[in-house]
Amino acid sequence: MTLVVTALALPGHSEKDPLTNINCKAAMTQRDMNYCADLSFKAADQKLNQIYRQLRNTFKQTKQNTQEPKLIDAQLAWLKYRDLDCKFRADRFKGGSIAPLIYSSCQETLTKQRTTLLIGYLEARQL
Question: 5 and 31 in contact (C-beta within 8 Å)?
Fold first, then answer.
């Protein structure tokens, strides 16, 4: 089995997003920064979902698939934790224009950490 990790091309990160005309490398307004933070989170979430699916598939290939249901439960609990923790962090700025940036940046950071953890699990299963 081969671990497949692909780099995601993010619109707006290396050039202007054709839909919004926002250049995320040079975002100046809070609105643009909020948009770009959300875009970055969505890319990180796509990568997490890709790795999660690959890990689940490794469990499906075993005769006694007892770990997959536990992984699903753990992932659902982690998603709830991530979203609640990030809401807690952003709540300090509730009503402010920076709150969406804090929320999306938190989600991106925690999602990348979880992705790294799942990649480790995936690599260990391939040994």
Answer: no
CATH topology of domain 29-125: Substrate Binding Domain Of Dnak; Chain:A; Domain 2 (1.20.1270)
Give yes or no for a contact between 8 and 47, defined as CB atoms under 8 angstroms apart: yes
In sequence order, what are the residues at sequence separation of 6 or more whose Cβ sits closer than 8 angstroms to the Cβ of residue 43?
A: 8, 10
Query: Do 119 and 51 meet the contact criterion of CB atoms below 8 Å apart?
Result: yes
Spatial CB neighbours of 73, under 8 Å, sequence gap ≥ 6: none
Domains of the chain, residue spans: 29-125
For residue range 47-72, list pLDDT tens digits in order.
Answer: 999 999 999 999 988 887 889 999 99
Q: Which structure tokens are listed for 39?
A: 């875009």
What's the predicted TM-score (pTM) here?
Answer: 0.83
> What type of residue is 114?
R
Q: What is the pLDDT of residue 19?
A: 67
Work out the angle at residue 82's Cα, subtended by the Cα atoms of residues 96 and 55, and round it to the nearest 5 degrees.
Answer: 145
